[in-house]
Amino acid sequence: MLKLIVKILFYVQSKLRHWHVVLNHWFWVQHYRGALHMHTYKISDEPLVFKLDFKSRIDIADGVNFAGSSKLLAIDGGALSIGRGTYFNTGCSLNAMSKIEIGENCLFGEQVKIYDHNHRFNLKDELLKNQGYTLGEVNIGHNTWVGSQVVILKGVTIGDNVVIGAGCLISKNIKSNSIVHLNTDVQLCDSINYK
Question: How far apart are CA 108 and CA 106, in angstroms?
Fold first, then answer.
C-alpha cells in the first residue's frame, strides 16, 4: 500500500511540475529546462529516471521499450539519442556529458552502463574529484545486441549487427558484423545467425 501511495505522489508531482511530459506509465522525471523529446514508447511499472540540465537534450524515438528501473542522464551540454524500436532491460544507465547515440532496433541486457566521459586523474597533487572529466562520444549502430552487465566507455564506436557478450568492458571500437565475448578477441563474421 505504501509503495502505491509513493508512486501516486511521484506521478502527481511530475504532472504538476512537468505538465508537458505526458506518459501513460509510472516514473519520475527530473527535468531542468533541458530538451526532452519522447515519442510513443513503453515502460514497465518500475521507475524510469530522466535527469538533464538546461544545456542538454534527450531524444527517444518511436517504439523504444524500457523494461523499467533505468536512468538516463544528460548534463553539461550532453546529448543522448535512442533510435526506433530499441529495447532496454532493467537497471540500465546511460550517462552523457558529450554525446551518446544509439541506433535503431538494438537490444540491451540488464544493468548495461554507457559513459561518454571519464574522471581525469593526471594531476598528482590534486584530488581526483576536483580534476574534472575527459569526454568522448559513444556511437552504437543499428541491430546491435549488448548483453547484461556490459560497460561501454567513452570514445567508442560500435558498428551495426554486433553482439557483445555479458560482462564485457568495451573500451575500443568494434566493427560491424562482429561478436565480442569475455574469452576471446573480437571475431569478425559475414553475418550473425540468431538461433
Answer: 7
Closest CA to 142 of 176, 103, 177: 103
119 is catalytic: yes
Copy the grid coordinates of residue 100: 551518446
Residue written as grid cell 546529448? 79
Instruction: Please report which helix (H) or strand (E) contains residue 118, including its range.
Output: strand 117-119
3-state DSSP helix/strand/coil % of the chain, to nearest 5: 10, 35, 55
Among candidate residues 24, 84, 82, 40, the one with its CA nearest the CA of residue 58: 82
Cα 134 from chain centre: 19
pTM: 0.75
Given 18, 25, 117, 119, which residue is catalytic? 119
Judged by DSSP in three states, 8 sits in helix
Residue 65, C-alpha cell as written in the block: 521499450
Q: Does domain 29-119+127-185 match CATH 2.160.10.10?
A: yes
* In the chain, domain spans: 29-119+127-185
Q: Is 22 strand, coil or helix?
A: coil
* pLDDT tens-digit readout, 26-82: 343 444 445 566 655 556 546 677 777 778 888 888 888 888 788 898 888 899 999
Asked whether 149 and 167 are in contact (CB, 8 A), the reply is: yes
